[in-house]
Hints:
This protein is α+β, with helices and mostly antiparallel strands. Helices cover 29% and strands 24% of the residues.
Amino acid sequence: MTITSIGRRARTTMALCAGAALLGLSACGADVDTPPETPAGAAETDADDTSDGGGEQDQQSSEGGDASDEESASDGGGEEEEEEAGDGAGADEGAGEDGGEPGASGERTRIMLVTDLGTDDTRGEGAPALTDDDLAALLAAPFEGTAECEDELVLEPGAAATGCLGPASFDTTEPHQEWVANVVFVPSEDGFQNGSTVAVLFSTGTELPTAADGLLDEDVSLTGVGFGSMFGAEPLSADEVAESTLQTLTSENAYVPVNTMAEWSDVTCEDGLDFTEFETVDCEATTTDGTTWGLLVAPGTYADNDQGLLVGISVPRDG
């Protein structure tokens, strides 16, 4: 308030002096051009143009609009510095929440289910195995890129997983992404009720999350299908998981079609799925003859296809 009063008195004094000077000149007959009248509010507009649009500058204008240009520039500069500092802090906080290293919370586990391993069923002494080069070729093939694997993968139940480096995406085909290869099982051609065959499940990271390790069980036969790039963008409810699981079981386009292996009629699930967490949900499928089958359902963020579901049908084996 003190600064504003001084400014007003100073302007009043200057205005009186200027008026006296003009009167004096007019009395002497001097030819003086009268400056054009300044439109009302122009001074306030000029001051606003130099400000940063902050609330403090608007308040000063509403109280009289007579704060000095020097004060306005000073206030505006201070506010701009504070805003810039605030924006920088917000950007850093956002990077910490949404960014981060691969494998951080919120990053989806991507998978590849490979059912054609290029091997035959001829068993010599011991279980067959994929060499490290053969395994790397399976990982790299969909991306038309390159990959490297640490060791061979023995194709038998409970076999140790093998770590690999492979492409991160179709746009980045160099071997930069960590993958892990596990032995899994898929329904045999005679139907999941009559046996299974070996397959390989690749997943990003250094190991399959423990919340999904039931998928590696010899009694679980896997299939899956992609539904589209936006599928699972938001968490799915239990009913939505059940509906999509039934579509997987009845799809002709599944990785291993099981639509003709049983007359699927209904699916119920105990919980929903959040695709940011790679874990299984317990479900139950019913056929038209009243037979029920236990299911393990996991998010299917397929690296070589659309997003969908990975469905394991539990079939206890005798002996």
